[in-house]
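User: Please fill in residues for this 335-position structure.
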């Protein structure tokens, strides 16, 4: 059913009240095809969990929400299992399903908001793991032709929080399912200090994938606000990748600036650290601001206009560039 002048507030984790000209939810490729036949020339916007968008105004087009569900085992060996999941599945629920069934590889990605379909689009990652590490393939509906195409890992052109679907194929496809290769003989990834510390608090010396998942959930819950309580989209900015000279200039004043090796001789900096050092962490402006525990997270405390949060992000970007010579990039999609 297509609904008109539809309130999108429940469908974006920032909790911004804006209205779509038209809205419908689809739970199959057939329903998706049907709704697209009634596009009537409107601009399209596809939503999953709504956890990576900031609405700054009403959307004068057709919003389609992906509610394709289902999880199935498509192949199994002694070492691995291939699991195919519908793009509308809640990501964290899918992680818990895998952990409960002792399928390893994505436990470090526990409690990341959003849907399964967004995982390859964003190449989501946390605590030393990215989707590309376990990705096999995805099926995507080609909006123009109505055909379903399969993309393997190479075709997705994964990068840091990037894929081909955010660049040259943007707005051309709708991801309908994703297949992952998960392990039955696990390699535990607890190298991040925060996970190691949490495991010590838990009294765990030889962690299982379930222990890693619990540790990550505890860490994220302590640092990040629950969107059900405070509107937010998780990390608002990407961690910047810069030339070594930029790092060396910052080290003249901040000797202990966190940095990590990146491809092509570059280094990755912690955007949250930069924002914190610039004095933005915990700043509040009426009903919105920067979260007090995590400077990467911009928050909507109550009935904020999305344009105000966008303007705040612009101020932060400009300030970080002025102070550090580093240009931050928004991770959240702006509409």
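Assistant: Residues filled in for all 335 positions:
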């Amino acid at each position: 059913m297509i609904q008109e002048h539809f309130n999108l507030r429940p469908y974006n984790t920032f909790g911004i009240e804006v209205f779509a000209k038209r809205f419908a939810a689809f739970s199959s490729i057939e329903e998706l095809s049907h709704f697209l036949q009634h596009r009537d020339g409107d601009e399209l916007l596809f939503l999953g969990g709504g956890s990576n968008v900031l609405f700054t105004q009403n959307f004068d087009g057709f919003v389609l929400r992906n509610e394709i569900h289902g999880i199935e085992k498509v192949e199994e060996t002694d070492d691995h299992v291939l699991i195919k999941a519908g793009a509308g599945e809640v990501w964290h629920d899918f992680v818990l399903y895998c952990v409960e069934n002792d399928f390893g590889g994505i436990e470090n990605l526990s409690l990341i908001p959003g849907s399964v379909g967004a995982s390859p689009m964003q190449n989501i990652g946390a605590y030393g793991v990215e989707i590309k590490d376990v990705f096999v393939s995805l099926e995507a509906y080609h909006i123009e032709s109505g055909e379903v195409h399969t993309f393997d890992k190479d075709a997705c052109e994964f990068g840091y929080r990037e894929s081909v679907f955010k660049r040259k194929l943007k707005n051309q496809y709708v991801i309908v399912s994703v297949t992952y290769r998960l392990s039955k003989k696990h390699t535990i990834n607890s190298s991040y200090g925060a996970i190691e510390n949490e495991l010590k608090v838990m009294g765990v010396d030889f962690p299982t994938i379930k222990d890693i998942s619990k540790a990550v959930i505890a860490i994220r819950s302590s640092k990040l606000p629950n969107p059900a309580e405070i509107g937010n989209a998780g990390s608002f900015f990407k961690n910047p990748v810069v030339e070594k000279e930029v790092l060396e200039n910052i080290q003249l004043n901040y000797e202990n600036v966190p940095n990590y090796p990146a491809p092509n001789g570059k280094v990755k900096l912690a955007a949250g650290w930069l924002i914190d050092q610039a004095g933005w962490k915990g700043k509040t402006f009426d009903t919105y601001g920067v979260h007090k525990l995590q400077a990467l997270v911009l928050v909507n405390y109550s009935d904020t206009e999305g344009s105000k949060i966008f303007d705040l992000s612009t101020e932060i970007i400009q300030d970080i560039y002025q102070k550090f010579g580093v240009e931050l990039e928004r991770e959240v999609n702006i509409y």
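For context: The radius of gyration is 20 Å.
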